[in-house]
Amino acid sequence: MTKKKNLRSLKKEELKKLLLGWKEPGFRANQIYDWLWAKGVSSIDEMHNIPKHLSSRLKEFFFIQPIKFDSIQKSSDGTIKNAVLLRDGLLVESVLIPTPDRITACVSSQVGCSLDCNFCATARLKRMRNLDPDEIYDQVLAIHRQGLENFNRPLTNVVFMGMGEPLMNYKNVLSAIEKITQPDGLNFSPKRITLSTVGVPKMIKRLADDKVKFNLAVSLHSAINDIRSSIMPINDSAPIEELAESLVYWYRLTRRKITFEYVVWKEINDKIEDVEALVKLCKQVPSKVNLIEYNFIGDKRFKRAENESIDLYRRKLKENGISAHIRKSRGEDIDAACGQLANKTGLSIN
Ligand code: SAH
């Protein structure tokens, strides 16, 4: 017997072709697609309007295997962290972040990460594999259901700020976003999706060329090459000038401002020169800035900056007409905050 295939790895066109080959009417592909991506069923048996002979045949060759929650932790601030069990037994994490006006899903795109940012807990896990489109879609759907169950509110935002680098899993991330946004999928607005990247210039240009409709955030943390390279090795191969050039390209094609994510650390990037470099970059690249509170991950080199330093950033940015927000840490007590996702529940830390 041949090995069964993941039914959700088929594109709609492939599904159509398969069913035509089985002499089934064309509309069956639409019905099945709707069960898979709009209704989000977890088994072929749940497809009620599909005739028995067809569902039996599908089951003979295909499986649907959604993610499962291995464990769920709830923070005192309402944040929920899920340990997500994938079909090969690996784990990633996803986070539901509730605020008075939003329910945000923070999802992972890879198991582990290859980028080695010094301040991030996920970097301590080696990259094991990319997530498939259905594994990313499932995280979003599961958090939507979790929001309804726990807060009686639907999902309002999706951020690719969990484990992994989404632009290093380009095809699958875009395919998942397609399922999340298209009318015969979850029909979720791309304006409410943000992809966060460490900043891979070639892939940022590709996003712009592909005319994506979602938002882009870049984890910057310093606008000075030496400093950025010392905390984010990616900067050696993609220095700030090259990154800036790709972001200007993005803006020219999409007309959407990017968001710089920026953590301020004591003695690393809390001097006036650091602030001035950021202001200069923001004048070059149409952007806004999220000043993120640092979440401690056990490395003594990185200390949260004094409030005065963060305030200096905010003031100088404002003075120069650049919008800046301070993003408070959420879910820190359960290691669900930015940079803390590292599967204390499962994967070994190398
Ligand atoms: N690889 C992508 C997606 C991860 S997003 C990216 O780098 O953007 C996770 C965000 O949290 C990034 O902005 C990252 O720089 C930030 N981060 C990592 N470790 C952190 C920490 N310990 N405290 C606060 N933010 C952190």
Provide a compact summary of the structure:
The protein is of the alpha/beta class. It has helices spanning 12-21, 27-38, 52-61, 133-151, 170-181, 201-209, 225-231, 234-237, 240-254, 272-284, 307-319; strands spanning 5-6, 62-63, 68-74, 80-85, 91-99, 102-106, 110-111, 129-130, 157-160, 193-197, 215-219, 258-263, 287-292, 324-327. The chain has a 10-stranded mixed beta sheet, with helices on one face. The chain has a two-stranded parallel ribbon with strand order 1-2.
Walkthrough of the structure:
The protein is of the alpha/beta class. The chain has two domains: 5-63, DNA polymerase, domain 1, CATH 1.10.150; 68-334, TIM Barrel (Alpha-Beta Barrel), CATH 3.20.20. It is 35% helix and 19% strand. The protein is built from eleven helices and 14 strands. The chain has helices spanning 12-21, 27-38, 52-61, 133-151, 170-181, 201-209, 225-231, 234-237, 240-254, 272-284, 307-319; strands at residues 5-6, 62-63, 68-74, 80-85, 91-99, 102-106, 110-111, 129-130, 157-160, 193-197, 215-219, 258-263, 287-292, 324-327. The strands form three sheets. A ten-stranded mixed sheet has the order 3-4-5-6-9-10-11-12-13-14, with helices on one face. Strands 1-2 form a two-stranded parallel ribbon. The radius of gyration is 21 Å and the shape is elongated. 45% of the residues are buried. The model is unreliable at 345-350 (pLDDT under 50). The structure holds S-adenosyl-L-homocysteine (SAH). The site of S-adenosyl-L-homocysteine has 17 residues, from β10 and β12. Residues 117, 119-120, 161, 165, 196-198, 219, 261, 263, 292, 294-295, 297, 338-339 line the site of S-adenosyl-L-homocysteine.
